[in-house]
Specification:
The chain has 307 residues and is of the alpha/beta class. It has a domain at 3-183: TIM Barrel. Helix content is 39%, strand content 12%. The chain is built from ten helices and nine strands. It has helices spanning 28-40, 62-74, 102-116, 135-147, 161-173, 200-209, 238-254, 258-267, 282-289, 298-306; strands at residues 3-5, 12-14, 17-19, 45-47, 80-85, 121-126, 151-157, 179-183, 276-277. The strands form two sheets. Strands 8-7-6-5-4-3-9 form a seven-stranded parallel beta sheet, with helices on one face. Strands 1-2 form a two-stranded antiparallel ribbon. The two termini are 31 Å apart. The structure holds NADP nicotinamide-adenine-dinucleotide phosphate. NADP nicotinamide-adenine-dinucleotide phosphate (NAP) is lined by residues 19-22, 47, 157-158, 183, 216-222, 225, 259, 276-281, 284.
């Protein structure tokens, strides 16, 4: 897998990020197999969060503890574990209304450092935004954590581009670190309720600023691999149905799978894209990683989205 420098940092990240939201639902030998396959393919970028995986037995902390343990057991160096804090709510966790307050973020970072058994988190995301809080307060608070050496580089998940722009403008004016990466929901299929980067103005901003993106739900939950277009669910719209048909047509032409075409569409944008893969199946992971070899033309890319 190719490694790409992340602008504004000294990090080099593999094209595909390994998502750890659900992985540790598997028995350890199976999650180890998938992680070993990812590392063998040249992967070096993991996505976890303070609140993962509160929906699984083990609850909050399971994902951070498990990836920290895997990395130590395998003696891995030169990898980036990105984690997130400040989620709005999490089962059996601190119930505070001001989830982006300095106290709450500091508490989340304390937990994450302990679970990962490290002194510094190299890439730290805010898990969401809270537009009641001015961006100046947020960037000052994160800067204080950078000064303490507990986090190194900043990223934002589920932040609208207007707030990203305002935060980075403030940071640059004050000579502070800006957000270097955004992680919205994004795939070739637009989610019905939460469009993320499928909202046209969001993608346009990234084209203009070239701020890198690590999209989550990049396969739209396996939508394009399904044998038939689902009759209901978060992606059931006429536009997505048409995209689903076009993906199959192009997959046939290129002798690849529909899921690979959908992932290739993400990779072929003018700004850096690091899709966060969420499969728990090692064969599907390998298939997704092979997407890098697929070359699509500009007319094909536009046709996939708009027909
Ligand atoms: N920042 C945030 O707010 C946020 C939110 C959600 C997720 N995330 C991160 O993003 C990662 C990925 O998100 P996601 O899990 O929603 O990604 P996704 O790839 O859109 O969805 C994964 C689901 O799709 C299925 N799938 C994937 N490829 C498939 C294929 N070729 N054929 C059939 N089914 C397939 C998987 O099933 P199998 O496991 O059976 O393959 C799994 O159930 C998460 O692990 C997490 O790290 C972040």
């Amino acid at each position: 897998m190719k490694l790409h420098p992340l602008p504004g940092t000294d990090l080099h990240l593999s094209t595909f990020c390994c998502g750890l939201g659900d992985l540790f639902a598997l028995p350890q030998d199976e999650s180890d197999n998938l992680l070993d396959a990812y590392i063998a393919a040249g992967g070096n970028f993991f996505d976890t969060a303070h609140m993962y995986s509160h929906w699984l037995p083990g609850g909050n902390g399971l994902s951070e503890i498990s990836i920290g343990d895997y990395v130590r057991r395998r003696g891995l160096k030169d990898i980036t574990i990105a984690t997130k804090g400040g989620a709005k709510s999490s089962w059996r966790y601190r119930k505070v209304d001001h989830y982006l307050s300095p106290g709450r973020i500091a508490a989340d970072i304390d937990d994450s450092l302990a679970r990962l058994e490290c002194d510094t988190i190299s890439l730290y995301y805010l898990h969401g935004d809270d537009d009641r809080v001015p961006v100046a307060e947020i960037m000052d608070m994160l800067h204080a954590e950078i000064k303490l050496g507990r986090i190194r580089y900043l990223a934002a998940s589920n932040w609208p581009v207007q707030r990203l722009a305002a935060a980075n403008e403030y940071a640059r004016a004050k000579n502070l670190q800006p957000f270097v990466l955004s992680s919205p929901r994004w795939s070739l299929a637009a989610h019905k309720i939460r469009p993320g980067l499928n909202a046209p103005e969001e993608a346009a901003w990234h084209r203009q600023t070239l701020l890198p993106v690590a999209p989550y739900c990049p396969t739209a939950k396996g939508l394009f691999a399904a044998e038939s277009f689902p009759a209901e669910g978060d992606y059931n719209t006429p536009e997505n149905h048409q995209r689903w048909n076009r993906v199959r047509e192009l997959a046939h032409k290129h002798h690849v799978t529909p899921n690979q075409i959908a992932l290739a569409w993400l990779l072929n944008h003018p700004f850096p894209v690091f899709p966060i893969l969420g499969t728990k199946n090692t064969d599907r992971l390998k298939e997704a990683l092979d997407t890098q070899q697929i070359q699509l033309t500009q007319p094909e890319l536009a046709w996939l989205d708009h027909g």
